[in-house]
Amino acid sequence: MNPMELKGALEAIIYAADEPATLDQIANAVGDEKATVRAALDEMIATYATEDRGMEIRAVAGGYKFYTKPQHHEVVRRFIKSLRPPLRLTMPALETLAVIAYRQPVTGPEIQEIRGVNVSGVIKTLLEKRLIVTAGRKPVMGRPILYRSSKEFLIRFGLSDLEELPSLKEFEQLARAALGADEGIAPIEPELTESLNGADAAASGTAAAEAMAEPGLPQDRQETPEAAAEQSEHTKAESAS
């Protein structure tokens, strides 16, 4: 097929694909060399990058996918919200997802140690939403399950690979835009000082880095019976004094 026909075929394939179409998949479908297909894709990416286009082609998660341009996100978000509720994450879920994304592969106990709260329910939610997947077991006592971010995570956040993960400073803003969760993410209360990545993240001074680093927010804290009993004894002691 000639160059114009090839570009038309590539456009149709990328548009029709539910997930990012890989170079191998596209080349096999059109029956052409990968070098030729890649060159055509590069030209199409440049064409869609012009101001008069409302969409663009991005290389994400090892393939190619259509995305609306950032300047149109607000109007598209309003339209999507009118059709169905967006994927929403609570702040505890977002914080846990951030820990997994930046520390992966990581176990449940390790996440719990970082966040200071029980995260089993949140991990189950992230698995159900396909934002994380299991990655085997850690070769230590008890062999706890390891978790890592998924391909769906890359797609939702518009990332080609994990090397494109933003700084902690940008994470919350990116999450709001990618997940369309303006109502679903509660405001972060910047009351914590220790960061996930130590002094570097703490120096960023951002609410997202601070919230990820310490035991979380009141809405996420799960009090154990032992802790409740301890608190009760402490209260009684104060009253007696």
Tally of domains? 2
C-alpha termini separation? 89 Å
CATH fold topology of the largest domain: Arc Repressor Mutant, subunit A
SSE order, one letter for each helix or strand: HHHEEHHEHHEEHHHHH
Mean pLDDT: 74
Looking at this structure, what is the CATH superfamily of the largest domain?
A: Winged helix-like DNA-binding domain superfamily/Winged helix DNA-binding domain
**What is the annotated CATH architecture of the largest domain?**
Orthogonal Bundle
What's the total helix number?
12
How would you briefly describe this protein structure?
The chain is mainly α and 241 residues long. The chain is 52% helix and 10% strand. The chain contains 12 helices and 5 strands.
Structure description:
It contains 12 helices and 5 strands. The chain is mainly alpha-helical. The protein has 2 domains: 3-72, Winged helix-like DNA-binding domain superfamily/Winged helix DNA-binding domain (Arc Repressor Mutant, subunit A); 91-213, Winged helix-like DNA-binding domain superfamily/Winged helix DNA-binding domain (Arc Repressor Mutant, subunit A). The strands form 2 sheets. A 3-stranded antiparallel beta sheet has the order 3-5-4. It has a two-stranded antiparallel sheet with strand order 1-2. α5 (91-103) crosses α7. It is globular and about 60 Å long.
